[in-house]
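Quick start: what a row looks like.
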Amino acid sequence: MEKPKILVADAISEIGIEELRNDPALEVDVKFGLKEDELVAIAAEYSGIIVRSATKITAPVIEAATKLKAIGRAGVGVDNIDIPAASKRGIIVMNTPAGNTISTAEHAFSLLTSLARQIPQAHASVIAGKWERKKFEGVELYKKTLAILGMGRIGTEIAKRAMAFGMRVVAYDPYLAAAKAKLMRVELFEDLDECVAQADFITLHMPKTKETHHMINRERIGKMKPGVRIINCARGGLVDEEALLEALKEGKVAGASLDVYEVEPPPPDFGFYGLENVVLTPHLGASTTEAQENVGIEIAHTIRDCVLNGIVVNSVNMPNIDEKTMSEIGPYLHLAEVLGKLLAQLAPKQPEFFRINYNGKVSDLDTTLITRSGLKGFLQFASGGDVVNVINAPNFAENRGVRVTESRLAEPSEFTDLIEVETGNDGETVAVAGTFFGNQPRIVKVLDRFVEASPEGQLLVLENTDTPGIIGSLGKVLGDAGINIASMSLSRNKVGGHAISILNLDSAPEDKLLEELVALDGIHQAKSIAL
């Protein structure tokens, strides 16, 4: 019988490679630097492929890989893998989200201490033959306030280290429950501006999304303490580099440490190069012997177990599931995930629970994976740079202090099938629901109003007073901006009362346009929702 073959296409630790080679049930090839056409030519030989970030597993490669069962990424990000193409072919994509947590946390804290004591600059001065003790007077960390933006695994590890140095730790994370923050002994702020205004040091550990892009910008820097120091070891683009450069030159920001950049590597004319109050490293967060060994060994085990035994862990697309079950629950998986995404973008900050209610035929199915799909959609905006999937979503929720429950409702419903997802805290609860009209999914409830909207693309959710002329004013503003309305659903509690309007748009409105809508008489809130 032919042995399954594994291709190691990027450099991982030798220990990981030996773990694979020592298994007599496998054959292992190690080939680095393969281009797309070279991968396409040999892909049909392999049951598993392991990559880091250099090798790209594109749709043509996946199409050619007729035996492929699993693709393993030694690291977190999977941007170099065409996940939709892999999912379509039933190929599992897995990563190693935990392997570099300590390495990245330690590097970020090293940047913090280097910044406080100007260690790189002092070193450069000494080896240049100088002795400039007065020039390199630093600041203590003791009793200083550190703001951690994003309390995922890495942010949590940094908080432990900061407390050991006697620092006061404050945090901003819209998806961390207040009770969980209390257990961590960090002060949680609901408002980002209030959080950074407290800080002597700020370290970022958020994913890069539309909401977090340039979260440290010119306006927000203006609200910080004079002399604040900023560390970014998470994602390029979280910090507006132009605004930070200005603030460093003006003295508003006393120093900055960067390990990630908007363009990597930075261009030769990168403005930070000539500044003495910055510490720059070339994306070294995961670059330790231990981290590389950890992710190498972890991905080797993961791929081996999947190829030989069908065991799947850390999947970023879907778990193993038999064909019959998938045919039954497949449509519900997508609907639940979209409802979770919608709920996340309407939810109050610091949600404490996630509840999913089933009514109708769907109640008779095994809903475990459906619930996890809804939870995955809900948590994707809280990932902190981690990849949330149907396997790790419950653990991710637990780490955030979010209680997850599901129930089957016995009372009659207007719908043959209904999935409702809810979230909230002691002060506010928000719910959305969806069903199928024939085989077409529909959003049928938003914020306690019955509506009908297609769960795809770009939505605009409006809360307004039910008064004549609003629809005309709304249409004019969108039309003047060149945004087409694909469909619209209106719902009110009574004539002249409170109304909800859901619009499917052909393109996303910019923040300035949303402000213009809210300025219209009778419109109280306008939210752009990306599904």
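That is the whole record. The mean pLDDT is 89. The longest strand covers residues 429-437.
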